[in-house]
Amino acid sequence: KSCFDLEKVVQETVHSLVLLAKGKNISIVFKNNSTPVIVVGDVEKLRLAIENLISNAIKYTDGRGKVEVSVRKKNGFVIFNSKDNGVGIPEEQQSQVFNKFFRSDNAVKYQTEGTGLGLYIAKNIIEQSGGKIWFRSREGVGSIFSFSLPLCSPARAKHLMAKTAGVRKT
């Protein structure tokens, strides 16, 4: 684990998914802070969680749709949002969304490819990082997937840097 700029990772992830979005005629917008948002965690695992959330938003949104991604600070935490105007999740199936291998009925009809592991993996990564993940969705309207992570305190950053300084390879 290390302290890193989550906003930069989100920006890189959005950039890497632009072609996927353009291929479906979907606009993808990243609303950023333009100031670093430093969190503690495994950067590659968190990148995977973010990629799963944003790529799902793209996959389950029709052409001429919109995906909005944002990162903001709130009360010692960072809040990530991925909002789409896609197919949404049927209300009666929402309690199962983070279950292993779960795919909603309309997702199966809409998008034939998928393992049902993306949200399960994202939830595990976020929770292992000390965060929480949640969503709001309305079928036919869209979904907002969000997570919070604790910001990296200056003391924690200093501690981690001191810890890694002793193990640097020369």
Task: Write a compact overview of the structure shown.
The chain has 170 residues and is an alpha+beta fold. It contains five helices and seven strands. The strands form two sheets. Strands 2-4-5-7-6 form a five-stranded mixed beta sheet. A two-stranded antiparallel ribbon has the order 1-3.
The radius of gyration over CA amounts to 17 Å
Number of helical elements: 5
Architecture per CATH nomenclature, i.e. the level-2 architecture: 2-Layer Sandwich
Number of domains: 1
* Overall pLDDT metric: 86
Distance between the termini: 21 Å
Global morphology: globular
Question: Unreliable runs, pLDDT <50, ≥5 residues?
Answer: none
Write the layout of secondary structure elements.
Layout: E1 2-5, H1 6-23, E2 27-31, E3 38-41, H2 43-59, E4 66-74, E5 77-84, H3 105-110, H4 118-128, E6 132-138, E7 142-150, H5 154-165
Helix pairs in contact: 1-2, 2-4
